[in-house]
Design brief:
- This protein is α/β, with parallel strands linked by helices.
- The protein contains 16 helices and seven strands.
- It has a seven-stranded parallel sheet with strand order 1-2-3-4-5-6-7.
- α4 packs parallel to α15 (329-352), α7 (147-162) crosses α9 (188-202) and α12 runs parallel beside α14 (302-309).
- The structure holds zinc ion.
- Zinc ion binds next to loops.
Length: 387
């Protein structure tokens, strides 16, 4: 299965990277979901992803594998962010990127800049909560109304205005309310009451934060009506996530309700609930899964996570994403670790006689890009050929 290394990847969930120089603290803060190194954690380089950077990223910057962290950061600074980002985005071997632009705690490269760096096609994913918060913050003179009473109609108008500019939507309900969302579309009275509670909690001129399960459910159902895929953050994330409320099985009722629409639902990351996600992908036709951020999170253990995901998930329901954010190293690492893991899993099946080499080649093409291209209804990009 040498050919997995030669297949361009369709990265269906990722973010921009930092375009300015980073010092050691800034680099380490972006390396794991733990944020800046604290009093007790030591260096973030002493993690699986930190060792993976030294092993796999150092050679891309012209250093030997396992170069010390200080040497790595000095070399990174000498080359400068533009060259570093170009090298890692190119090394990732990507055909297509779907970029979530809804989370910008600091300036990040735009989808257009990522396209130039990666030599790949880029598309936007619209973050539902960000759009809803902008609508609630109104007043938008073009909307049907403002404030809680007009929210339902104004949000629908906002999605209709955005739908041609995105290839899909993303819900971060996991970060705000957990995944036990109401299955049925909430009625207008419930939506207005929830919007009113949200505005009251923010106070006059305060920052609006959608975190009501009724509103998250409304946003998802409205997004599904547009016919474009909806991504859910599931499982592993930073300390804002209440991980015990992020088991994707909590979405079961909602997924059952959505399934007749046939609109794809993408469960992102999933770790440590990747087996549960694999089950959902088997029993609900429009549900797809990836291991996303878990690849660089667990680094050398990626093949185990991937094999466990594929215990039940149909091979036709697995997508690739990096969830790279901030550091261009994460684009390269996620791609490399995923390719290695997929090769390991497919070779194991071939060696065991579970499938033929021809079957493995077919699965590799599906998983690296063909499935995603179909689910997002994108034509084949001219550069989306083999590397
Ligand atoms: Zn993300």
């Amino acid at each position: 299965m040498g050919e997995v290394a030669s297949l361009a990847l369709f990265d269906h969930h990722c973010h921009g990277v930092v375009a300015e120089q980073l010092d050691r603290a800034g680099f380490e803060a972006l390396l794991t979901e733990g944020g800046p190194a604290g009093r007790w954690g030591g260096s973030r380089f002493d993690t699986r992803v930190g060792f993976a950077v030294r092993r796999w990223c150092a050679p891309v910057l012209g250093l030997p594998p396992h170069a010390p962290a200080d040497d790595y950061l000095t070399r990174r600074a000498d080359l400068g962010p533009a060259e570093v980002n170009r090298r890692f985005l190119t090394a990732a071997g990507l055909s297509t990127l779907c970029v979530d632009t809804g989370f910008q705690p600091r300036p990040l490269t735009t989808p257009t800049q990522l396209a130039d760096l990666a030599g790949a096609a880029t598309y936007r994913i619209g973050r539902l909560e960000t759009l809803a918060e902008e609508v609630l913050a109104g007043p938008d003179p073009a909307a049907s109304g403002s404030g809680a009473a007009g929210f339902r109609a104004a949000f629908r108008e906002r999605l209709a205005a955005e739908v041609d500019q995105v290839v899909g939507w993303k819900s971060i309900a996991a970060y705000r309310a957990g995944l036990a969302l109401p299955a049925d579309p909430p009625d207008t009275t419930a939506i207005t009451a929830a919007a009113d509670r949200t505005l009251t909690a923010a106070g006059p001129g305060g920052k609006i934060r959608i975190s009501d399960p009724v509103l998250h459910s409304f946003l998802v159902h409205t997004a599904i009506e547009t016919g474009k895929p909806v991504q859910f953050h599931v499982g592993y994330g930073d300390s804002d996530v209440d991980l015990h409320r992020c088991d994707p099985l909590l979405l079961t009722d909602l997924l059952r309700r959505i399934t007749p629409s046939g609109v794809p639902v993408m469960l992102l990351h999933n770790y440590p609930y990747h087996r549960q996600a694999g089950y959902l992908a088997q029993v609900f036709d429009p549900v797809f899964v990836d291991i996303g951020l878990a690849a660089h999170g667990v680094a050398g253990r990626t093949a185990t996570i991937l094999a466990e995901t594929l215990e039940l998930a149909p091979f036709t329901k697995l997508l690739y994403s990096s969830d790279a954010f901030g550091l261009s190293e994460l684009y390269h690492l996620a791609a490399l670790l995923f390719r290695n893991a997929l090769t390991t899993v497919l070779n194991a099946g071939t060696d065991a006689g579970d499938w033929t080499p021809a079957d493995a080649r077919h699965l590799a093409r599906l998983i690296t890009h063909d499935t995603a291209r179909q689910a997002y209804r994108l034509g084949r990009h001219p550069q989306a050929t083999d590397l």
